[in-house]
Design goal:
Length: 464
């Protein structure tokens, strides 16, 4: 079969891929092909679900007040990763995030003032008007104007790589197999968060009960092939971003509206009706990303957030209504929990609550004393009917295992040398910056910054 020939092949159709394709086209490269596994209405991977990117700014921007300087951004990153980050690459991403705001605008993206809600990010994150879908629509419109060819439902299944050089790829399209070759390739095909078999290999049987918050197309096939063909791995395969989401969410693509933000207002019990972690440890934006893992550690990977009537309307509700009941016993029945166990946990909790001044905007003095697991802030008795519950399960956002890159986004091979004509951007290399933990909005920063660099490097390779 004759392979179609291009200057640059871009694998993936999200933020990183489109930033790369557009950047290369703007440098004059003409024959660029984007292969996107998803159909048009589901294009754009996890980027489709996003709302913002974390943006350094040394002066106020039109939609972002005050400033967010490099050092503060860096300190924030250092805190969440515990130092597991490549400082050179991380600082480069931080510095270049400043220009990314204007760059996105030049591609047709529009911004809006930060949305309110439980995660307050107005100074640190730039919110796109219309969310990730609008951002992608702008990218795809620009790509079309620049003559970039996009093939949907095109799943890359094989890559021909020898001695750090890419020769071509095989992809399937509606049951047929096609071959394509190019002078340079951009890998921007995400992590392996959609692939439950792979997740189970890393996390064990509990992974069966995980949900994937985003696209079902990030199966990790390109990542697997790159690692098998000599790309140097980076990141721990068991690390990723995992939040507690409504257990009724679909297996994939539930998106942002399935996140449960009620934890700080009540208690969380496991299927035995027992509490297992301090629900009031810190402000929710600093803690929401640990609850996926906490629930993953519980029997059958399920938890139940329990609040009473006085908390209703105080937090952003998920898309599913809470399960309500007039008594705790009735609620336990609806949740299939042992009523006596739930009653005893709540009674014990209520007795341990010390009176204080409840204020969700500060680390208040409402706490419990004398429990095995105390609640250190926002502890109020759970006694005012009706009682409500949100069942929660671990929702994987994205995984951190990736390929090592340098400051030109070139993939580093196991011999330590950069690949001749292969670059990577986005989730597939995010582990270079995120060894563990997560900083809200940095996923899209990594995608856009390294996407642009990858596109520029691919263009340079084509011209040489
Ligand atoms: C619900 C949710 C909300 C989020 N909110 C935010 C936010 O507000 N801000 C933020 O910074 N981050 C957020 N994130 C994280 C963010 O989505 C990712 O960090 C970012 O989208 C990664 O971009 P990417 O281009 O690398 O990957 P993706 O956008 O996931 O794109 C990967 C692409 O590769 C394609 N693909 C995969 N395999 C193949 C193959 N074999 N052949 C061809 N194509 C393939 C996929 O179809 C997809 O188009 C959120 C994630 C989720 C799930």
């Amino acid at each position: 079969m004759e392979a179609a020939n291009y200057d640059i092949l871009v694998i993936g159709g999200g933020n990183a891929a489109m930033a790369a394709a557009i950047s290369a086209a703007r440098l004059g490269v003409q024959r660029i092909l984007v292969l996107e596994a998803a159909p048009p209405h589901l294009r754009g991977g996890n980027s489709r679900h996003t709302r913002n990117f974390r943006c350094m700014h040394t002066t106020p921007l039109e939609t972002m007040p005050e400033t967010y300087p490099e050092e503060e951004y860096w300190e924030d990153l250092l805190r969440v990763t515990g130092g597991q980050t490549n400082e050179q690459l991380a600082r480069m991403a931080i510095r270049k995030s400043e220009g990314t705001y204007e760059w996105m605008k030049a591609q047709g993206v529009r911004f809006q003032p930060a949305l309110g809600g439980t995660l307050q990010l107005s100074r640190t994150a730039a919110f796109y008007l219309g969310g990730g879908k609008a951002l992608l629509n702008a990218y795809y419109r620009t790509a079309q104007k620049l003559g970039i060819e996009v093939k949907y439902e095109a799943v890359v299944t094989e890559v021909d790589i020898k001695d750090g050089r890419f020769n071509g790829a095989t992809y399937t399209y509606k049951g047929d197999t096609h071959k394509v070759s190019s002078r340079s390739v951009v890998f921007a095909a995400g992590g392996f968060e959609s692939n439950f078999e792979w997740l189970e290999k890393e996390w064990g049987p509990p992974a069966k009960n995980f949900l994937c918050r985003g696209t079902k197309y990030n199966m990790g096939a390109c990542l697997r092939m790159l690692l098998d063909k000599g790309a140097k791995a980076i990141g721990d395969p068991t690390q990723g971003h995992m939040v507690a989401i409504d257990a009724r969410a679909p297996k994939w693509d539930g998106g942002i509206s399935t996140r449960v933000d009620a934890v700080s207002f009540g208690i969380v019990v496991n299927k035995n009706g027992q509490r297992f972690y301090d629900e009031g440890e810190d402000f929710w934006p600093k803690r929401y990303a640990i609850w996926g893992r906490l629930v993953a550690g519980q029997p059958d990977q399920i938890g139940f957030v329990i609040v009473d009537n006085k908390s209703v309307g105080r937090f952003m509700p998920p898309v599913f209504p809470p399960i309500g009941a007039k008594s705790l016993e009735e609620l336990a029945g609806k949740l299939e929990l042992d009523p006596a166990a739930l009653r005893s946990t709540v009674d014990e909790f209520n007795k341990a609550v010390k009176p204080g001044t409840f204020d969700i905007t500060v680390l208040d003095d409402c706490h419990t004393e004398g429990l095995k697991v105390n609640k250190t802030h926002w502890a109020r008795t759970i006694e005012e009917p009706p009682f409500y519950s949100y069942p929660v399960r671990p929702g994987v956002t994205f995984t951190y295992l990736g390929v090592t890159v340098n400051d030109k986004s070139q993939i580093i091979m196991n011999d330590g040398k950069p690949a001749t004509n292969m670059v990577a951007a986005g989730e597939i290399m995010a582990g270079n910056v995120l060894g563990k933990g997560y900083l809200a909005g940095i996923g899209m920063t990594i995608g856009a910054v390294f996407g642009r660099i990858a596109g520029e490097e691919a263009a340079r390779q084509v011209k040489n």
